[in-house]
Structures are given as structure tokens and as C-alpha cells.
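haha ok so turns out i had the wrong file open the whole time. this is the CORRECT one, sorry everyone. sequence first:
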Amino acid sequence: MAKPSRWAVAADYLVKTVIPIVVALIVAGTFRSCVHVGNWYKQTLDAPWQQGAEPFAVMKDSNGIVHFRGSIEHRANAAFADRLLQLPNEYRPAGFVNGAIVGSQSGVPSCALGIDKDGVVTISGCGSAYVWVDGFSYASKDSPIEP
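then structure:
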């Protein structure tokens, strides 16, 4: 089976994750209150991943939406289907979520980030060692907003 293009992965993420969350927030009347409140927590990464220039951190807002920010570096020549970390219980999704993130070679969504229900975060499909996770968001398992 042919590997989907990076644009197909990004479009799939937009349609399946971002748009339903925004629609649910608008319908619930909470869109304007969905701001990044609370603290960002820097995460410890699994080897061979290391923090980039802007450390990888997560934050959960008042609606239970988890937000990522920062950059990471891969310090080995690997297949890039590598485990990045396992999230603490309160940041885990109810089921598998995935989406496109940006690798350093192109500046456009060129990698896939996936999170399973146990909070294991993996990155795959990258052709670069430097990756940005800014803007990646999803509903946590205790969010009142269903994706």
C-alpha cells in the first residue's frame, strides 16, 4: 500500500481532529474561553531524542485539550518510527490520535506524530533530525469535548 503524502496526513488530521474540536467548542459556547491557561510542563524525552532550542512542553487547558510546543532533535540515524516519550496519565487521549508536524528539511508538515491511549508518543516519516511540535493539540481522555 502506498504511503500517504504529507498533505494527505495533514488534511486528515485537520478534518478528523481540529475541525471537530473547534465546532464542538463553538457549539458549546466555550471557544473564546479555550485559551492556554495553566502551566507548560517540560517533558523528559526517550533516547535518542533530545530537547531542541525551544524545549518540548505540554499543557492542558480548562477544556481538557492538551497542547504541545517546542522542538526536539533526533541524535541518531534511525528509521524515525521512534518512541519519543510516554505522557503522564492526565495528558493521555481516550484513543489513538495522530497528525502532521514540521521537520527541518522542508518547513512544511513532513512528519507524523501519534499518541496511543497509553500516552506513548511516536514520531515517524521524518527525513530530518530536527522537529517542531508547536500547535499539535488533542482532547485528553477526561475532556468534555469529543473529537
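Residues 6-139 form a domain with the Immunoglobulin-like fold (CATH 2.60.40.1830).
again sry for the mixup
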